[in-house]
Write a structure and sequence with these properties.
The structure holds two protein chains of two kinds. Chain A is α/β, with parallel strands linked by helices. In chain A, 35% of the residues lie in helices and 21% in strands. The radius of gyration of chain A is 21 Å and the shape is globular. The model of chain A has no long low-confidence stretch (mean pLDDT 89). At the A-B interface, helix 3, helix 4, helix 7, helix 8 and helix 9 of A face helix 7, helix 8, helix 17, helix 18 and helix 19 of B.
Chain lengths: 333, 628
């Protein structure tokens, strides 16, 4: 089976500023390894979540796939074709089939555009239909994202709508061109709890109805669990564990994932658990790591963890973990 | 949007006066050819006639009518103002946008060009033009435009630089829009505001420059200009002061009007300045004698009754906290959960009276450690000093969400903490302060070596720990933590919540944890209050809130949350939106979104229903009773 999206060994390095003296002294310039050798495959219609903390490179990965940023190395294939070499009409066609939903709905819509015009614009850019047809398609889309009656919303401006409604508009705009893949970067993290579930359910039902594949980027493991069938956990630019959602949540095989699962506070009485004492915070990597990235914070790190980069260990069907002790961790260690 | 702008301008007299002056002058200038005026260049009157019936403003040395010349001069002033500021703005918009949008070498070259043009004095440029081509009003206008456009260009460049980072601009690109499309449809239209504002100031500047040039004899010799009139008048200042007085006054009025108009627009468009305009006068404080403010023995750590606070938003009042009551014993912890805008942060600020300029305490009583700090909405003072000021930090402290904003970036951590310590204990020496800071750091797990660091040298989690240390310096009995971990990553959040919890147990602290995160509250608090639209709709022991909630909002909120370790269940959403708190609300605030609501709910405010020990519900038909 060819994957819909096939990312292989993708990296994005940003040069770090250094002082005049260091520049004069020469040597290798320090680079921020925002994304460092990420590989990921998505089948048509599949929803994969990328979970990670700030600085894990999850957002940059999304930007690379939507070509908002050029990767330093690696390949991105969409329906078997290399995406990075696309130019002109082919590039425009790719942009049509791969859409993006952004985190901040208050910022994602032009304040001077009415809601209807916002949704019509992508159709205009791609020259779809006549002006009348575009308007009809856009109105149908508004109804699809439950902004009904559409006449109540069509001619209003973003400033008149709430966060949840704005995110529905953003979803409508992303879907109006009939994409095959949607990259959603924390689409509900800025929404209030009471409207969050509505937007999540909407995305799930539309994905099923339209056969959409999604790359769902989030810091929230609970949201990732509700939204995806597979989860990739990123830490400091690299995927450290990947697996089917339920397997990963209940039987994580990487110490970082284990900690992450344990750190999410549960909204149940008496839910306080014994905490693993964890030291330090994630610090960005500026040179090629010689060992495991998580070793400095890992409660079970051994000597080998700082001297050798762990290779992915296969745990089960579609489940692997980049940890020297993956097998032990997986059985609950 | 236009409506908002209009409202923001409505209360500004200088703006409307200057607008009226400009409109009146413009009408006169437009009508000049149709008014029964003498020919401005005709030398018909007697020279040096003072203002009188025949020549209202007198005549000049050639016997020309001053009124007529003044009005024709207005025409010239407007022409110069409009044409040169239009040229300057247009050039500025085009070149500034290109520089800002494309950046890199394009920006580098254009930015240097802006700077070079800014350095050319307009007088020098006009001198050059006059020397080369002769004097002509068109050349003057072009010269003025050429020396002022870099100002617009720099404004536009800055606008575009910030706009191109906006998500909606990136969104348009991601959808496949071309650079031209993005620039013309999304970036430029959104960046024009300040350019328009600045154009009015440019107009004033242009009029002044033209007058100055004419005064020096560099203007168009054939045009009737105020500057030229002043120039001709100044030689006859004693003989015929009216010759220069009237054009001088007109010049002053019109230029001042343009500048005030620009200022007014600028203020109306700038949110920071607009917020200041909403400053409210607080209610009168209540002075008590020291004896009256003595602590009540055996009082709870904090008692709050019917507390209400509002914000002035334009001409409206938003009741953010509306009748909240609770009390907290020593060592007890209360979680306040709710969605954004429900008033939970305002509640924390209202309790300790840390108020925004547009916030006002409206009603209620608050006492901390038995001492009254608020009575009937009036701040309690003893000897002219608010009691709460003496209690804040020493007996009750607050931890804010954004640690970076709360710390001074140019002072070391040690100095900030030491100052905070000695502020309330002036007798303490630097060594004593240091010793206490050391104790607190050890308690929270900050390496003592970090004391000499500046805030930016610390990680987010470490900064938040410093804020917690600050709040614990004086060993207060009560700590209010307002979203203390929201900006942090989940692993760090977990640690800090754990540390707050451990500290509370060890030191017998009373804690109010304000959070949008039900999970954070569930793990840390004895009791939980659910806040909705300014009210506590339900308050109960933590296990009761989660296991047997009675308010329909609490129930709905809990079933809309995804879980990591619990059973995977479909999420239910709450329809509708939270009500606006600037409008009066009749009946239950949740009625419009509630599946159980009836006519009664929409008409009558719900009663406070006691559902069990320490369990109160603000509902006509609590969940678990027979449905209506």
């Amino acid at each position: 089976m060819t994957a819909l999206l096939d990312i292989a060994d993708l990296s994005k390095l940003y040069p770090l500023r250094r002082g005049l003296l260091a520049t004069l002294r020469g040597g290798e310039a320090p680079m921020l390894r925002a994304v460092d050798g990420v590989s990921l495959r998505l089948a048509a219609g599949e929803i994969v979540a990328i979970v990670g903390e700030s600085g894990s490179g999850k957002t940059t990965t999304g930007k690379l796939v939507t070509l908002q940023e050029q990767p330093t190395s690696g390949t991105i294939r969409f329906e078997g074709r290399d995406v990075l070499g696309l130019r002109g009409a082919e590039l425009k066609d790719y942009r049509r089939r791969v859409q993006m939903i952004f985190q901040n709905p208050y910022e994602a819509l032009d304040p001077r555009y009415t809601i209807l015009r916002t949704i019509v614009e992508p159709l205009e850019i791609h020259g779809v239909g006549t002006p009348g047809e575009r308007k009809d398609v856009a109105e149908a889309m508004l109804a699809k994202v439950d902004l009904r009656p559409t006449s109540r919303f069509a001619n209003r401006y973003p400033a008149d709508l709430s966060g949840g409604q704005l995110q529905r508009v953003a979803i409508a705009r992303a879907l109006v061109l009939g994409p095959k893949l949607v990259i959603a970067d924390e689409p509900v993290s800025m929404l209030d709890v009471s409207v969050r579930a509505g937007v999540m359910n909407l995305m799930l039902s539309l994905s099923a109805e339209l056969g959409l594949a999604s790359l769902y980027i989030t810091h929230d493991l609970a949201v990732a669990r509700a939204m995806s069938t597979r989860i990739a956990v990123m830490y400091l630019g690299a995927v450290v564990e990947e697996g089917p959602t339920e397997t990963l949540v209940s039987g994580a095989a990487h110490p970082y994932t284990r900690l992450l699962v344990g750190a999410v506070p549960e909204h149940r009485a008496g839910s306080r658990r014994a905490r693993v004492r964890l030291t330090g915070e994630a610090t960005s990597v500026s040179s090629k790591p010689t060992g495991c990235r998580f070793a400095p914070r890992c409660p079970r790190a051994q000597a080998v963890c700082t001297t050798s980069v762990p290779a992915p260990v296969r745990i089960g069907e579609g489940h692997w973990s980049a940890c020297h002790f993956a097998d032990e961790v997986a059985v609950g260690g | 949007m236009t409506g908002n702008l209009f409202r923001a301008l409505a209360s500004r007299a200088p703006f409307w006066i200057s607008a009226a002056i400009i409109v009146a002058a413009a009408v006169i200038a437009l009508l000049a050819p149709f008014l029964p005026l003498a020919d401005p260049n005709a030398m018909e009157g007697a020279p040096y006639s003072p203002p009188g019936a025949e020549h209202w403003l007198g005549t000049d040395n050639f016997g020309r009518d001053i009124l007529s010349r003044l009005i024709w001069g207005t025409r010239l002033a407007f022409t110069v103002a409009l044409v040169s500021s239009a040229i300057a703005s247009l050039l500025g918009i085009v070149l500034g946008s290109i520089a800002g949008y494309f950046g890199g070498p394009v920006d580098a070259v254009l930015s240097r060009a802006f700077e070079v043009f800014l350095l050319i004095p307009s007088f020098f440029l006009v001198l050059l033009i006059v020397a080369l081509f002769g004097s002509n009003i068109a050349y003057t206008m072009v010269a003025i435009a050429l020396t002022t456009w870099p100002r617009s260009a720099r404004i536009m460049r800055a606008q575009v630089l910030s706009l191109k980072q906006r998500t909606y601009v990136q969104a348009a690109r991601a959808v496949g829009a071309s650079n031209t499309h993005v620039l013309l449809r999304h970036v430029v239209p959104n960046g024009l505001g300040p350019i328009v504002t600045d154009a009015t100031i440019l107009m004033g500047l242009a009029i002044l420059t033209e007058a100055g040039l004419s005064f020096l004899g560099l203007g168009d010799q054939n045009a009737v200009s105020w500057g030229r009139m002043i120039f001709e008048g100044q030689r006859q200042l004693r003989l015929a002061p009216w010759m220069s007085f009237f054009p001088g006054l007109s010049l002053l009025l019109l230029v001042a009007a343009f500048n005030l108009l620009g200022d007014g627009l600028n203020q109306a468009l700038s949110p920071q300045l607009r917020r200041l305009a909403n400053r409210v006068t607080p209610r009168k404080p209540l002075d008590l004698s020291a004896a009256e403010a003595e602590p009540t023995p055996a009082a709870p750590m904090i008692a709050v009754r019917d507390l209400a606070m509002s914000y002035a938003i334009g001409t409206q009042a938003l009741r953010a906290v509306d009748g909240v009551s609770f009390s907290l014993a020593k060592g007890e912890s209360l979680g306040v959960v709710g969605e954004s805008g429900c008033g939970k942060s305002s509640l924390g600020a209202a309790i300790l009276q840390v108020l925004a300029p547009n916030a006002r305490l409206e009603a209620g009583d608050v006492s901390i450690a038995g001492r009254p700090v608020l009575r009937d909405g009036h701040t309690v003072r003893v000897d002219g000093k608010p009691v709460v000021d003496a209690l804040r930090w020493k007996d009750a402290s607050i931890i804010f969400q954004s640690a970076m904003n709360a710390l001074n970036p140019v002072m070391t951590i040690e100095r900030q903490l030491s100052e905070a310590y000695r502020l309330h204990r002036p007798e303490a020496t630097a060594e004593q302060a240091r010793a206490r800071i050391g104790e607190v750091f050890e308690l929270i797990g900050i390496p003592i070596g970090r004391l000499s660091a500046y805030p930016h040298e610390l990680s987010g989690g470490m900064r938040q720990r410093v804020m917690i240390a600050l709040s614990l310096l004086h060993a207060p009995g009560l700590v209010i933590a307002d979203e203390p971990t929201t900006a942090l990553d989940v692993l760090v959040q977990d640690q800090i919540l754990g540390e707050i919890d451990a500290l509370r147990r060890r030191m017998g602290l009373s804690l109010i944890l304000i959070s949008h995160d039900m999970g954070a509250v569930a793990e840390t608090c004895d009791r939980v209050a659910v806040m909705y639209a300014g009210e506590f709709v339900e308050i109960a022991p933590t296990d009761v809130i989660f296991d047997a909630p009675r308010h329909p909002y609490t129930v709905a909120l809990l079933s809309s949350l995804p879980s990591v370790t619990g059973p995977r269940k479909p999420l239910t959403s709450i329809p509708g939106e939270t009500p606006s708190l600037t409008e009066p609300i009749t009946g239950c605030r949740f009625a419009a979104r509630c599946g159980r609501s009836t006519a009664l709910c929409r008409e009558q405010a719900p009663p406070r229903h006691v559902a069990g020990a320490g369990h109160e519900v603000l509902c006509h038909f609590p969940v678990g009773e027979a449905a209506p």
